[in-house]
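Milestone 3.1: sequence recovery, worked example.
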């Protein structure tokens, strides 16, 4: 037996023979892809010239920092992951990577990403990245997740910070535009994640994690999901209203936000647990598409503007 994050956890004592794919899995690559997109939007929404090489390295450092957060999260949460069907096959609970190896990997990547961003861009951006890693790995993972059903609400700030970090990397400051992008991700996170939490409520109950459906009940969770989505729909249009995105973006954000609100209403009004579970899965899947659409359009629009400026 070995001790992981203060909890008993089964793991063999031999040195693992994990391959690159196992270490890549520690980085939570699906989350990293979203971080890359949102950070890129945070860079490109600012009307400044960005050196392509410095911009790429800065974006890579932010992505590696996000991956480091994921590795530290998996190290500390190995005891929880081992009893949840959704996470039992992750590299640590499955025994492919030892806890100490994951910890060392996460700490090394954290230091590397922060130092790289500081040297390539500036130390404000590096400090914000370090805070993001700390907030996710320590404040959320080690404290909030096991203590309060508001864990994902407060902890969602870590996932919303990449656009702010990226903005600081290219401008040396934090702008209103980056804070608007932060707000969109922050308000999006609860309905997105609680949709999964309702569908996986038994897993969280078994692991003893006080997610909202387990701690406050499914009915309360569905209502709060609706409230957050009501806030999110107009918030998604705000970049256009503030002149930070085009009318095309505004139209797409309006339509996609209205559809997400419709799905949230369906979840709230679901007549049975089975119907709620089905509607939550639809909302969860669509919410990912929604965020990719909003930030993808911002990236495409600003890339087109940059090309036009160079051509002119």
């Amino acid at each position: 037996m070995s001790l992981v994050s203060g909890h008993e956890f089964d793991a063999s004592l031999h040195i693992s023979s994990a391959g690159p794919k196992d270490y890549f899995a520690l980085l939570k690559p699906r989350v990293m892809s979203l971080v890359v997109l949102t950070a890129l939007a945070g860079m490109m929404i600012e009307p400044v010239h960005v050196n392509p090489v410095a911009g790429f390295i800065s974006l890579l450092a932010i992505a590696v920092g996000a991956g480091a957060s994921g590795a530290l999260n998996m190290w500390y949460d190995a005891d929880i992951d081992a009893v949840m069907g959704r996470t039992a096959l992750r590299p640590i609970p499955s025994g492919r990577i030892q806890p100490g190896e994951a910890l060392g990997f996460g700490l090394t990547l954290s230091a590397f990403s922060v130092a790289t961003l500081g040297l390539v861009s500036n130390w404000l951006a590096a400090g914000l990245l370090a805070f993001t890693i700390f907030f996710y790995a320590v404040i959320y993972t080690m404290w909030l997740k096991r203590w309060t059903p508001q864990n994902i609400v407060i902890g969602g700030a870590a996932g919303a910070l990449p656009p702010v970090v990226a903005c600081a990397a290219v401008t040396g400051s934090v702008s209103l535009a980056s804070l608007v992008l932060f707000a969109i991700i922050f308000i999006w996170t609860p309905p997105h994640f609680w949709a999964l939490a309702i569908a996986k409520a038994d897993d969280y109950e078994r692991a003893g994690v006080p997610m909202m459906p387990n701690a406050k009940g499914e009915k309360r969770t569905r209502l709060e999901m609706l409230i957050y989505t009501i806030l999110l729909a107009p918030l998604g249009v705000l970049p256009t209203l503030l002149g930070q995105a085009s009318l095309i973006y505004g139209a797409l954000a309006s339509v996609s936000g209205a559809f997400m609100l419709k799905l949230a209403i369906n979840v709230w009004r679901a007549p049975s647990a089975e119907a709620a579970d089905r509607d939550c899965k639809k909302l969860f899947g669509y919410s990912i598409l929604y965020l990719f659409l909003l930030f993808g359009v911002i990236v495409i629009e600003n890339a087109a503007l940059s090309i036009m400026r160079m051509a002119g």
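Residues 1-13 have pLDDT under 50 and may be disordered. The radius of gyration is 20 Å.
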